[in-house]
Inverse folding.
């Protein structure tokens, strides 16, 4: 008898299942990116819901479906919505729901809060990039954009780089920058708010951009020799800044160029092509290509953000929920004849 119920998992359930455990999330993401490199995935184009009266780049809803093969064997969808003015309302900028489906019956296995998974996946991918691409002796970080993703990224990287002693943050809102510093102080992580973006980035060994800016602003002066730049945002780096990179690493080249982000724009302008890209990240994690090879390399990491990464973390959480007996069973699917007659 096939179980036709679905498991409903709240954000609190996800936390109890390890969704905020950097090591657990990273292990799932490494397996996911290795599966990506081996071609064990399906990722159709994303579905974007944009209204003309909401022109800001962060005002949209995106549907991202995918299938992820062994060792996950899962299908599903992330439905992520974003409103750039939400922080002014005391609300998260982005929220999400994730649905997992059985790859054989296609029945919904689970429905779960997706904002936490999406945010943790985003942050831990950057931490993994730092692990593989930053100098091991990195001692400073610079962050521009004092929102939830920026804070999570700093926190995740600090788990694996405990010797980082200088962290500077800039935000157009000084209040948000100081709020981030106060929050981090509660986690015993010292962060200093500075008065300009270049003050945050110019001396940083690991630079992080997590803004919703529509126009490029990161200049070449912000890309220090030997540093790693984590381009979490959409349009922050200028073409000249990216052009300084000794290595460009992406998660998925095809996804990157079918967007409106910096590499896509550079590709359309004839300034970058697949031969310009050192590696997709899975090639480095699987050992097929090297990561950082010298202390003075400038490395530009540009993840598109893949739905299969969210599915990998969601499947890890779902399996742990089953093992721990967490979540609420709901009956979404009934026997066909009982419904129709």
């Amino acid at each position: 008898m096939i179980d036709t119920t679905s498991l409903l998992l709240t954000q609190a359930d996800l936390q109890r299942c390890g969704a905020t455990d950097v090591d657990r999330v990273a292990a799932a993401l490494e397996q996911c990116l290795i599966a990506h490199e081996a071609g064990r995935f399906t990722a159709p184009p994303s579905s974007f819901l944009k209204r003309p009266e909401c022109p800001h780049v962060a005002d949209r809803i995106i549907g991202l479906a995918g299938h992820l093969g062994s060792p996950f064997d899962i299908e599903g969808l992330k439905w992520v919505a974003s409103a750039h003015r939400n922080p002014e309302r005391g609300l998260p900028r982005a929220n999400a729901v994730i649905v997992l489906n059985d790859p054989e019956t296609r029945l919904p296995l689970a429905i779960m809060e997706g904002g936490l998974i999406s945010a943790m996946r985003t942050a831990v991918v950057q931490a993994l990039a730092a692990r593989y691409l930053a100098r091991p002796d990195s001692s400073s970080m610079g962050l521009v954009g004092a929102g939830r993703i920026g804070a999570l990224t700093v926190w995740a990287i600090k788990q694996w780089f405990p010797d980082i002693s200088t962290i500077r943050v800039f935000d157009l809102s000084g209040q948000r920058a100081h709020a981030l510093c106060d929050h981090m102080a509660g986690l015993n992580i010292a962060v200093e708010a500075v008065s300009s973006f270049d003050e945050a980035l110019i001396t940083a060994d690991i630079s992080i951009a997590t803004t919703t800016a529509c126009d490029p602003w990161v200049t070449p002066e912000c890309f220090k020799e030997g540093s790693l730049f984590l381009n979490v945002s959409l349009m922050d780096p200028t073409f000249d800044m990216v052009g300084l990179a000794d290595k460009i690493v992406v998660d998925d080249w095809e996804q990157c160029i079918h967007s409106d982000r910096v590499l896509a724009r550079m590709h359309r302008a004839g300034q970058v092509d697949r031969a310009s890209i050192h590696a997709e990240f899975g090639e480095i994690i699987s050992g097929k290509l090297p990561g950082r090879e010298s202390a003075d390399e400038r490395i530009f990491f540009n993840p598109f953000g893949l739905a299969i990464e969210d599915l990998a973390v969601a499947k890890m959480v779902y399996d742990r929920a089953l093992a721990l007996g967490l979540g609420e069973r709901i009956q979404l699917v009934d026997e066909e004849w009982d419904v129709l007659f």
